[in-house]
Structure formats: structure tokens, C-alpha cells
Fold these 2 entries.
Entry 1:
Amino acid sequence: MSETVSPAGAPPAMNHRQVLEALSGLILGMFVSMLASTVVSSSLPVIIHDLDGDQAAFTWVITATLLTTAISTPIWGKLADLFNRKFLYQLAIVVFVLATAGAGFSQNPEMLITFRAVQGIGAGGLAALSQVIMADILSPRERGKYMGLFGAVMAVATVGGPLLGGVLTDAWSWRWNFYVALPVAIIALILVQKTLRLSPHARRKVSIDYTGIVLLSAAVSLLLIWVSIAGTATGFPWNSWQSYLMVGGAALATVVFIIVELRSKEPLVPLSMFRNRTFTLAVVASISTGIAMFGASVFLSQYMQLARGATPTQAGLMTIPMIGGLLVASVLIGWLVSKYGHWKPYLILGGALLIAGSYLLSTIHYDTDFVLVSLFMFLLGAGVGMTMQNLVLIVQNTCKPSEIGVASSGVTFFRSLGGTVGVAVMGAALAAKVTDLMKEHMPDLVKAIMSLGDKAPYWQAQLASGALPKVSDMPHALSTIIEDIYAQGISHSFLIGVPFAVVSLLAILFLPNVSLTRMTNDERLHAGEADLATVSVEEGMSVLTATGSIGVVDEVDAAAATSGPAGDAPGSSGR
């Protein structure tokens, strides 16, 4: 079996066993990140209920994490091009897990939202750095099957997380959802330290775009706050001076951010990368993937508990079909991409499945046959599995080796940003729809409450509080109405993702079908340095020829050839 030959100066190519050893800590770190994120998904309705939070609090617990993940991802990507990537990855694990543990001590929704925001900073690092480190040690062609392995691990965490969270919540307390990741994180840190060996990169002067960070944070935060509060009973009307102020502020911050990025020496998001057609179209496609991925994980758990009366444990089991689709698609497609080198047909199929899954989930009711709901979830999960990792892969395949960090994190950033805005918009649409339906069904609700006898005041107070209801504890007469209301609201919110999925498929169709290289990022870097050296020598020779100094060089060459090893013909210097 022939070995892969690396360019001169590049580290020797690793075999399969060495790659798996190097990736073991990386994979476990991603598992910790995914587990800590998904373990609360099935129990979040119970958590918000116990902390007396409403639908807006529920949405902000999710969007706070997504927002800081989105904003911090390009920052971590930039740092990856400047500092030791192994240390940065370990730092991201520490930040993520400490914030996760702190969330377990939350006493109110505001405290939980704050810790979740810090958690997102660590999550951004893990998401960005794992892609960058993989690019250092694996070629795009080989990366497909290992990304399939990452997808499998993510799927296990995504399947096991909600189920584990439901069991912990039902058996003990939802607070254990946040503590369970600590021992796994310690093992991940040790594994990363022992198994991950990266080639040192040339150090260069550090310049962080702090102004860009502030402006981007302000623009996205203003937009999300506006979407979450406008049009609600406790907020302000859509057509009001507060709305104009927030939207205008977000627009102004965005314009100034673009100006700053164009002038910055080390921009947070290098706008010059948008000249690369692959990067631009991958970003557009990633936004829709983020909406589908995060929106489904957030609102499907609500659907299971608020529209079908499931407990947290049951909700974790009921979302397995979607994770099954993601698992099968990510592993199978990753293997096919590595084996045959073709990626575009799978991305097109994934985009079509995103449209189908989003639309079909917008048609569900509280009494829809669960076999159909499972099929719809599977289609959406398969669409996410086919598109999510491959969009990063094709960008890494075409970008400059020196920009691998910022390019990878750029796609991840826009995917997280799409998910953040998508979840906020879907949550706002859900809250508005539920409010309207509550008013519409008020006579039925009053009739159901009055039939409860001495328990009527308790349930009347529960509904009047505005907190998320715990449908599994409700009397049947009342739960049926509430399930119908939330089912209509959640299906309405899924419809929002359909046009974005259509745009994603169009972007995928226009992606240039560039073949995947078999060189790792380190090999591409050293190959580029070798090419530069060759060009420099050739330019130098041209200068000597032009100045008449070539005769001296010829004499030196001849002398070297004459005194060379036996068998070398004089003058055969190979020049």
C-alpha cells in the first residue's frame, strides 16, 4: 500500500489510526458541547414553568446561546489564525462547561439566560475550532468520512441528550441537566492534551477588531430584542417609535460595521471573502440550514409537551426520528463523499429535503398521526445532515490555507446567526399566534375551567399568569384545548422556515462544482511556500541574466558539477 507523499517541509501524512487518536479528544469535546446543549431541550418547558417564565423567556434562553455563539464564532476563528489552536480549544471547553454548571444554579429566567449566553461563547469556540483543526490534519477528500464520524457523535448526543435530560428531570431535578457534562468535559480536556498534536504555525502580530465585535453585537441584539418584544402584550406595537428606533439602530450599526470591516487590518468578518462565489453561496445556504436545525430542535420539544401532553422523557423519545435522519444522512453522505469525491448531488438532495421537511411540519396538528409526524421529522433531519457539514467542507476546499480559520468560522457564524434570528422570529410568531388563539377559544376555556369544581381557581390562576403551562399535569377537559392552541401556533411557526429553505436550495444549485483536493491544510501551506520559493529563485535568475551576471553563476555551477559525485556529467546541474 503506497503512502501519501507530503510536500517538502510538511509534516508526514497520518495513517487512519493516528488520525483517530488525534481526533478522539476533539470528538469528545464536541460531544460535551452537544450533550450540554441538547440535554435541556426536552426539559426546557418544565424549566421555564418552574422559574415562572413565559414564551418570551423560553425563546430567549435559546436565542441568548445562539446569539453569543454566532458573534463569538468568527472571533474564535480569527484567534485560530493567530494563536495556538489546541490551547484555544481547551479554553473553549472550560468556558462552556463552567457556564453550563452555573446555569444549574439559576433562580429565575434572567439568571438562566445570562449563563446560557456565556455558554454560547464556549460553544462558538468548539464549533469553529473543531473545523479548523480538522482542516489542519485532514484533506477535504478524506475529511468527508471523518465528518461523518463527527455527525454520528453529534447524532448520539442529540438523541441521548433529550432522553437523558427527560429522565433526569422526571427522576430527580432539571438542575442535573446542567451538571451531567462536567465529568465528560474533564476527560475531554485530558484527551485533547494527550492525543492532539498540531504543527506550529508562524506567529504574526495580533490585531483584534474590537470595534467590529461591538457593532456586530449591537446590530444583532437590537434586531432580536425588537423581534421578541414588538407586538406583544407587554411590549410595544410593531408600528411605533420604539420599533423605528430599534430597527434604525440595527441598520445603522450594520452599515458602520461594514465600513469598519472594509478598513480594518484584521477584520472580524473579512468582506473580501464574499468575492469567492463558493463562500458567498455557502453562507446563504447555511442561514437556512441554521433555521431548520435550531428551529426544529427548539419547537419540536414544545410540540411534544404542549401539543401532545408528553412528559420530558417521552418528548426525548418522540424526537428520535429527526435525529435518526440526521445520523443516517451525515454518516452515509460523509462516506460517499470520501469514496467518490462527489458532493453537489447530496447537497441538492439535502436542500430539497429541508423544503419538504419544513413544509410538512407546518401542517401538523395535536392529533396528527405520529407516524406521519415521525416521517416529517426524519426528512428534515436528513436535510440538515446532508447540508450542515458539507457546506463547511466545500468552503475549506476553495479558500486560502492561511484563511482556513476565518473561512470555516464564517460559514458557522452565518449558520448560527440564521438560527438565532430564525428561532427569535419563530418564537415571536408562536407567541402572537397563541395569544390570538387564547382569545378566540376563551369561551371554551372558561367552560372547561368551570367544570373543574374546586380546582377551577387554581387552573384559572395558572392560565392568567402567562407562564408556560405544564400540559401533562392538566385535566383532560382543559389540556385538549391547550394542546390544540399550541399545535396550531407551532405549525404556524414552522411555515416561516419554508421560504428560507427554498433560497438555500437555489444557492446550492449555483455553487461551483469544484473537485475536492487530497491535500491537508498543512500540506497546502507548505506547497504554497515551496511554490513561492521556486518563483523567487526564477525571478532572481531572470534579474541576473538581465544584468549580465549569469556568467559568474554558470562558472559556479560548472565547478560544482565537476567536483560532484561520480557519474554526474559536467554541467548537468538540473537547472
Note: The mean pLDDT is 74.
Entry 2:
Amino acid sequence: MIPLLRLRLRRDRVQLPLWILGTAALAAASVGGVAESFATEADRKVLLATVMANPVILMFRGLPSGAGEAQMALFLILPFLAMLAAFMSTLLAVRHTRTEEEQGRAELISATPAARVTPLTATTVHGVVANAVLGLLVAVVYIGSGYPAAGSWTSGLATASVGLCFLGVGLLSAQLMRTSRGANSLAVWILVASFVVSGLGNALGTPSDDLTRMESGRLAWLSPFGWAENTRPFADDAAWPALLGIAVGAALAAAAFAVQSVRDLGESVVPQRHGRAWAPASLSSPTGLVWRLTSGSVLGWAIGGFLTGLLATSLAAVVNEIGTRIDAVQRIFEAMSQQGGLESGMVVIFYMLAGVLAACAGVQSVCRARQEEVHGTAEPVLAGAVDRVRWLAGYLLIAFIAVVLTITAAIAGSALGALGSDMSLLQDAVVAGIGQGIAACVFLALTALVFVLTPRATIVAGWMLVLLALLIGLFGPLFSLPEWLTTLSPSAQTPVLDADGVDVKGAWWLAAAAVAGSVASLALMRRRELRPAA
């Protein structure tokens, strides 16, 4: 097992440090951001009271546990530290299991005296070590910042527990699904669903009388993110909820070992779908082939967009209910309503998530071109009467359609949700949706440029661009980042609805960048050779 573990560490010598150090850097940034933006306890209490008035904010933040500086930092950042750990773990698990089988390397290992489960064991140890280092660094960052040691270690444990839980999710997904793309999609959907369930549980929780602490609802206890947040670092420092995540991760890993021991190499629990006996007419074009390859994932992102749009408008009723249930919250709610910002702000926040889903749909469609190139299936297509530019143009077109479908589904969901609340919110949804769709097109254009210029970095760079832009857009104001850096996030330049109408902000620049990037990638593709090696 040791040689396989060393091989995994060598292959991840760049990716893994980026994930771990990036997460630790985000934790460090939260310390300075809170100290500068919310320097006094009075400022922090006002923020927490505002959060209680608008529980939608809890969908994208943590669980309030007090008005202390350290408690505020973890309230704002812990879910995102946990999310980074989860993404790192699921991608690691699938990359070293199902991807190895898909590309034929696992068969070479099986031809040696190594035991059947040795590669899976090496991957599990690799993931455990990565999460242990990640949790350790998070704790060291907070201890070095002067925060109490007990809460710092609890923060590290909570972050690592979510990573370990989703390490088990990734390992089992790789056993269930026939392809690495399917395994990653299943793991990511479980991750997103868990995040949303935890956020809903927090939003439907019960605030304390002084509006500085929230007791999460029962729904949050169904999610690893909810368990991590209920450790309440720097307040209760309860380690046992984090142990639930570790226990679930261990159980899922054990299930993965059980499946691995009985299935054939290259096979899966969920069988590969049989193709049709006769190909439809749409497969006569390269664009039709791309749609056939990506339609399933596009549909999944569109469903996610629909649910996000539905929540954006339908949860207005939940805000009203919370506001009328508690007198203090009701007063804050009324003050915010007079400014006309509560419901509209809720829609904008949700549509930032819808924009991320649309960007993911576009980026994944473009990344599919790299996967086809690596697997050698692009070569037979290009051997026919299809040139490179037309081939890549098909992926760009489908990526654009994926963005449009995701945003359209979100707006349709908002229309349905507004039927039971306030139809005037639909206008906010349309403006926010169009803006986020334009921003998403920038990401697919940038990913296409990376694919043409540095093919090997396509998948990592595409997803990292989306993640970095999301983090800058969400945390730029909190961390007091320079304005020029914050404006680099496309989501910060999308149109908004104000008292004077629609403020287009940087929408025209975003559209120009998306068009220019797409055209440049097609022009450069004309001279690019195929590079099938991974």
C-alpha cells in the first residue's frame, strides 16, 4: 500500500496543497475581515439581529452562536471552509478510484500481487491524511490569530469532519456509478443538497431572546454541514456533532469496500445505460453528439436552477412568518421593509447561487471536450468531415444553451414561487437571472480559452475560476478586499433593479468579454493539435 500512497501524494503534489492552503487562507482572511468590518460588539449584535430578521441569510452562512469576535468569524466562514473540504475530498476519492479504472491504470495494479482492495485502502488513507492536515492548519490559523485554543481545535475538527464524511460519499459514489463523471455528479449533488438542507434547518430555527444565538431546526441535523455548525466553536465547543460526520464517513467508506470486494473491475452497481439500436438524426452533426453526451448533466443543473428560483420568491412567506413571531425581529423587519430591500435582497442572494449553477453547467459542458480528447473519442469525430473549430463550437453552443436553460428554469421557478407570495418579486428575478446568465457565459469562455492554450489545466482551472469568483463576490466586502479585486468577480458586475429602474453596471463589459473569449478560443483552436495524454 505504501508505494500506491506515495504515488497518490506525488500526483496530487500541486492540487492538494492548493486546496489545503487555500482553505487555510480563507480562514485567516475571516479573522482580519471580522476585526475590520465588525470591530465592536455593538456592530456584531446589529448584524446578528439583522440576520434573525432575514433568515434567508442563514442559507449561505453558518449558525449564530454569540456576538464575540471569534464566534462571528466562524458564523460567517465555517460553512465555506467545510464546503471546500468536502469538494476536495469527493474529487480526490473519485480521481483515485473510478477515474483510475476508467483510464485503465487500475487494471495494471490488479495485475500485480497487490490485494484487490489495496488501491481503495491507499485512497482512503490519502483522503484521511489530507483532511487531518486541513483541519490542523485551520486550527493553527485561529490559534495564531489569538483565538481561544479550544474553539480553534473545534473549528479544525468541524471542518475536517465534513471533509471525511464526503470522502466516504466520494468513495461510495465511485463504486455505484460507471463513469468518473457520473460519480462526481452524484457526489456533488449530495453535497449541494446537504448544504441546502443545513441552511433551511438554520433558517427555520429559533432565535434567542437577545438575537445573538440561533437554535437550528431539526432539518439541520440531517446534514453533515449542520453537524459541523452545531459544534459551535468558541461558544459550546461541542465535539460530538463532528463525530457524527466522521462516523457517517467511515460507514460509507466501509460500504465502498464491501462493494469493491464483490464487483468486477470496471463495472458498477448502477449499470451503464444501453444505447439505442438506431441512432437519431440529431447524431448526424457534431453538435448533436455533444448534446447527447451532456444532456443528462444539463438537465440536472436546470433542475437545480428551478429549485433555487422557487426558493428565491417562495421563502418571502417564511421571512414574514419569522418576523411576526418575534417582536424584536418584527421591528427590524419593518425597518428593512421600508427600505424596500429585504425581499429584493433575498432574490439577489438566491440568484447568485443560480448563477453559480449556470456557470457550473457551462464549465462542465466545455470540460467535456477535454474529457473526450483524453479518452480518445474526439479523434474519430475529427477524422471525419469535422474540423477542430466546428468541433469546439459545438461544445461552446451547448454550454451556452446549458446556461440559458439553467437561468430560464430558475426564473420559471421564481414565477411559480411568486404565485404564493408577491408577483412583484418576479421582476427582480428576471433582472438578476439575466445578469447572472451573462456572468456565467464569461466562465465558459474563459474555460474554453484554457482548453485551447493549456489543455491539461482545463478541468481544474474551469472549476477554480468559478470558485474564486464566488468567494470574491461573497467575501470581498467582508474581508475589505481592494475594490478593483472585488470588481473582478463577474457576479459583482451583474445588473440590479433600483429605484430609477435597471442599473446595468458592467453587464455590457461581461457580454463583450464572453463573446471575445469564445471567438478567441475558436480562432486559436484552428492551429491546436490534439493532446490526448492526461
Note: Residues 342-375 form the longest helix (34 residues).
